[in-house]
Each structure stands twice: as structure tokens, then as C-alpha cells.
Sequence to fold (292 residues):
Amino acid sequence: MMGPDCQPFTPLTAGLFCAIFVSVCEHTVQILNRWGMENENLARTVGKALDILDCLGREKTCLSASEVARHCRFSRPTAYRLLNTLLNRGYVTQDRSQEEKYRLGYKILELSKSLLDSVELRQQALPFLQDLSRTVNETVHLAVLDRGEVVYIEKVESTQPVRMHSTIGSRNPVHCTALGKAILAYLPPEPQAAVLERASLAKRTRRTITERAALQAHLQQVCAQGFAVDDMENEEGIRCVGAPIFDHQGRVIAALSVSGPAYRLGLERAYQLAAQVKATGEAISRQLGYVA
Fold:
């Protein structure tokens, strides 16, 4: 795989970001295929674009549109059209000395790095999450912000017979979850405003905050106290307390939470556990290089 001016990336770097990116995109094709016959052409086009990325990732030199077409077994006009779409989006780039030849662009590396960062975050955070779950005997989640929602990337189940149902990879709104509010509260003003602008602030329960001004005031309180509470705002009968996690640059990159049924995790107990949740977030942040 080629770097700038067709200088090769190391095999490890090439393998990592190509394998990750293509596997993620192949999952996208599977989703498109489930949409039905009316989207068959779209799925086929995405599949061909992935063939091009896979081809450029395997080869040791930059390739022309004709060479890509030959390797991928489709027409040169198709290869040229898809290469230019990928070029415009940054997924491929052209060699400065050979403008008719293409190589993988750094956009793929950016996307893969984001995924690899999440993998590293999970590995670094997991021992702390396990310790917290053992201590409080409740389910603990780790989540990141993605496209205006929180996504669970790690979970440690409690041993309680009754516990919150959730799965790694599932999504929830930011405005009514402890995880989402813990992240939102510590975002810089512009990114926070952008997330809130996109968020529907849908009413999930009778306790959900649905007014933007009220939510912003609530987030100021979250920031002041260092933790967020979801008092049955996202799901009836479930209460959560969450805290932010920061990277070495002081940016909020994730949050963790303790969740449980409201009859066991009463509001008073949730606020009592907040200190432990906050301390765990601080410990993970330090592990990631954050200095307060």
C-alpha cells in the first residue's frame, strides 16, 4: 500500500486500516442488500467501490483506471467514475508525479484510526469497569458519541437476576441518557450546539427533558457536579448515573455509567454512587494520559 508519492506504508499499518475499513464497508453492503430489489443497483455500486479500495490496498504500486478495471473485472468507465468519486471524498488520491494513477487516501486512515482508538479505549477502560461493577453490583457501560447518539462499546453485566437489557453496538439518544449528558456537558460550545441542533429531543418518558433551553441549563449543572443522572428519562424503570472520560489532550471522548432498575437503584443511591462513577472516569482518563 502506498503513502505520499507512492511510498509504501508499513505492512502492519496497511493491513490494519485496510482490513478494518473494508470490513466495515462490507457490512454496509450487507445492510443495503437487505433493503430489497429497488436498492440493488446502489448495493452493487458500493460493492464495486469496495473492490477498488481492496485492490488499491493489495497492490504495491499506484494504479491507473485501466489497471483497476482489469484487476476488479469491470469496465474502465466504471472504474474511472468510481475512482473520481472516491477521489473527491478523499478515500483515494493521485500520485503527484503520475496524475493518472491512484492510491489509497488518508481518509481511510482517519476512519480506521477512530475505530482503533475505540478499541484501545475499551482495552484500557475494561479493568476499571469490571472493578466498578464488582463494587456496586450493577451493570456498567462504556459509550462514545457517534453521529449525535451514544453507542455502547463495552459492557460489564451485574450478577443481579434483574438488570438492564442492552447490547454492545446499540445506540441511544444523547439528551436523555446519563452517558449522553455526561459527554454533551463537556463538549466545547460549538460541537455541543451542533449536536443539540441535530438532536430531536424526543420525549421518551414523562421525565425526558425536551426543551433545548432546559437541557442546556441541565448540562451546566452536570458540568458543575462532574456527573449526570438519567432519572428514568430514557426508559421507564431504569435509572443511570454517568461520568465523562477525557483523553490526553483534555477532550471528552467517552463516558461510563452505572445502570439498574429504579427499585434497586433509587435516586438517593444513584447520587451516592456518583462519586465512585466519577472517580472511575477520572482513573480511566489518567490511564489515557489526561492530567487535570
In short: Residues 1-5, 7-16 have pLDDT under 50 and may be disordered. Residues 4-104 form a domain with the Arc Repressor Mutant, subunit A fold (CATH 1.10.10.10).
